[in-house]
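Reopening this one. Same input as before:
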Amino acid sequence: MKIVFFGDSITDMSHHNDQEIFSYGSGFLMYVAGELYREDPKKYRVINKGIGGNRVADLYSRVKTDVWYEQPDVVSILIGVNDVWQEVDIQNEKKLGTKAELARFKKVYGMLLEDTAKVLPNAKLILCEPFVLPGTVTGERGSERFKSFEAVYAYAGAVKELADEYGAYFLPLQKQFDEAADQFGSEAYLYDGVHPMVAGARLIAEEWLKLFKGQVEKSIRG
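Same output, byte for byte:
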């Protein structure tokens, strides 16, 4: 069973494709691969197609070579925070709004899903919820910068709507991060408010595996 993980730096996490041992990166995907390969190292093939800094438009531009050519059984997508991040920085400089960008995000994401469903009609799609916590990049909770980053919540809502529209599986993550941060602090899970620490990567992996083993893999087996 081939699984392609498609996304930005949260998926990428400095992976290198030249040697398999380094091809998973140092983030949540490494934990996912480790658990699946521990169960059966010949049953699964996990592929990291994350690239740091990517937005949804970047995924759309490279989906043919990085996903369709792989002919995967499962495509897992995590994207959205960079779409917000860029707009936060532009907004701070030029005082622009983000509502139009949210509509564009949803439109391009929808195109990505629609085209992928046509090319890979049997592939299962997992759409991961983008998330954010207070941090050195996102600002303190209640600050103007963090209020701007809270646009991630609206983007997450758009991802959920797209999952429903295209029959994809939706993986919620924001609530889990909020609850964990309330107990141990944001910096223990996302070191800058965006990128996962070990605990954050493990949290994503555990939630992903729960969904995959509980629903997605069973649907593939029929």
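So the earlier flakiness isn't reproducible anymore. For the record, Residues 93-97 have pLDDT under 50 and may be disordered.
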